[in-house]
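Example noted here:
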Amino acid sequence: MNRDRLTTPIVFTPDNEPYLGRPLLFQFDQIISSVMEQNRHTAPTTHGRSLTDHQRMAAQVIPQTLSIMLSIRELIRQGYLFGAHVLVRAMVERTAILLYLNLYPEKIDSWNRGWHNNDAPGLAKMFDAIQVKQQRNPTVPGRDLTASMNSLLHAKPDSAPWNLVPIGGDRLGHAASKILNRPELCDDLCANVIPWVAIVQGMISAYFHSETVAEIG
């Protein structure tokens, strides 16, 4: 019997997870703790009172975003790096919606109507619009920013490297389960997600600023 199968846990815990000790993973854990604490203080202030359309949207989308963030973290813990990478787009899209509607508040009516394809911008167009509003020069085309995420989500040919693992000698195969020996994939994942978590923190303050300050301060 393969010795690795005997020594590799079926379920990893925080003290034996495969990428424990990676600096970027540590940073991810730190910002998770920070944003969850921020949300813990802010969420109760949204209960039992009237909210603006923007706050109702944020009160829905922010928890969804945080839930996906935590799902990504747990997938990293269990070694399911490919699945975690696929989830990044779902988290990024929700974060972009929060940022886009904060910069273009008049677009909230489109969100209220259902955020349909013919009535709302796609992720790439939101990136374009966000950069225009923030006066980024030069801008990076939104389609370039979304390309790798779309490839992973839609199983395009260039998504192949994201679940390659060594299978002996110089041979590679596509993993169908845990990936325990590609720390660079873990690092890449954390580096991609951390800035979006920071934006979510900013959006919590932007949509519920006075409540956040009152609760934390």
About this structure: Residues 211-217 have pLDDT under 50 and may be disordered. DSSP finds nine helices and two strands in the chain. The first helix runs from residue 3 to 7. The beta strands are 164-168, 171-174.
